[in-house]
Amino acid sequence: MEVSQVAFIGLGVMGYPMAGHLANAGFSTRVYNRTTAKAQQWVQEYGGDVGITPKAAARGAQVVAMCVGNDNDVRSVVYGEEGVLAGMVAGSVLVDHTTTSAELAEELAAACQEKGIHFIDAPVSGGQAGAVNGALTIMCGGDADIFGQIAPLLKAYGKQATLMGTHGQGQRCKMVNQICIAGILSGLGEAVLLAKESGLDVAQVVDVLKHGAAGSWQMENRAVTMAEGKFDFGFAIDWMRKDLGICLEEAKKHGLSLSLTESVDSRYADLQQQGLGRMDTSVLIKSLGK
Q1: Is the C or the N end of the chain the one with fewer CB within 10 Å?
Q2: What is the C-alpha radius of gyration for the chain, rounded to an integer number of angstroms?
Q3: What is the pTM assigned to this prediction?
Q4: Cα(271)–Cα(286) distance, integer angstroms
Q5: What angle do CA 272, 276, 278 make, to 5 degrees?
Q6: Which residues are catalytic?
């Protein structure tokens, strides 16, 4: 399948630049957003068209990509008389970049199959900066042939796209990703606190440690801002709690108790109660003793 016409559903902090990369890569792109003014702004910047409904946006597209909020948000744009499935034709591909439950991915795959439509679950990692820079990591679940057909599209905004297995496996890989981030931030918060209390220069500590075994993206990009008490950017804890909830539900199905993940989720819940839900996930350091 040669992809020329695409649709992108959801123009949030991730979707807006992702759709922009598609337009810049030469794909004829039609967009939909619940706030139509945002879609019109996107068209003014990148060209393309606005779909007044998800169905209208999807009409004529060989590939429809989505990046919205949660499971219910996905269902709201996929199903119904004005949903994307109502506008798609047999042989086209629906790609979901939203971080959702694996069960929703399997549900969507079945719904698509009934209409002869292909489905790929494809959550992303890299945050807003990764979306803006076209450097996202994309974890996919679905059919290998279909994954190969949409690879050129994914390259527009991804530095790496990997097929992890059948439908739902992309979402499960994203769960693993979020658990790793939660653990790193928990340890990094304690490390930064100790560094500050010990009189160390946190920036110097990062410069020394980033090339060793303790190095990580979180250390290089968040340790200094954590030390400075700056959290008004990045991936909000409201969204991280949504993701960790998905992780914990999946763990229950396998009889697993993820004590660290549960602890971090609980600490984020306390921070939400303090009105910090829109702060970056590195605000976890505020849950520590000092």
Answers
A1: C
A2: 20
A3: 0.95
A4: 8
A5: 100
A6: 174
